[in-house]
């Protein structure tokens, strides 16, 4: 199993079976991802954490190009239906479902959610994935929340955390969050795309090292093993 980072919160997980899961597609409006060819993204599933533009800007185009099934909160599912996209699986916080690639549980995130056209985006969410014998937490955009303690007994292998601050957790709260979920392996997301979420990577890496955590900050387009 491997993951590729495409900037902001856009990540892909490719299973050993070849199945591809893409999270929060935001490519064409991110200058840092200018070298990523949107047409090459052909996921089997697209998981959407919430409705903000920097998470759904390329959602419809990628879905139409790939035919992927979209997994999202019920309100976003309804919004997509209104856009003529029916290959959607709506969920809600606390619910889980067994897909052909593994199990997905939708968990709480503390943020906000409105679609780019002003439509209701439902509640923001994160995802707990049980895939190919591993457990992976994609937190979505979130503040540090004590709800994360509910995951501490899941024996998580990896977690994707926002670390850019301002709109989400910053590095210090992400370190606390790693303790809450009892996970040492963290992939940082949601940073550097805008001025207010730029980070000092060396400083952040040092903080995680001092906390005894394994932080990965892959370059855009870089693939790492999970």
Automatic annotation (TrEMBL):
Gene3D superfamilies: Ribonuclease Z/Hydroxyacylglutathione hydrolase-like (3.60.15.10). The keyword Hydrolase applies. Residues 7-190 form the Metallo-beta-lactamase domain. GO terms for molecular function: hydrolase activity. Pfam families: Lactamase_B_2. SUPFAM superfamilies: Metallo-hydrolase/oxidoreductase. This is UPF0173 metal-dependent hydrolase FSB76_06440. It comes from Mucilaginibacter ginsenosidivorax.
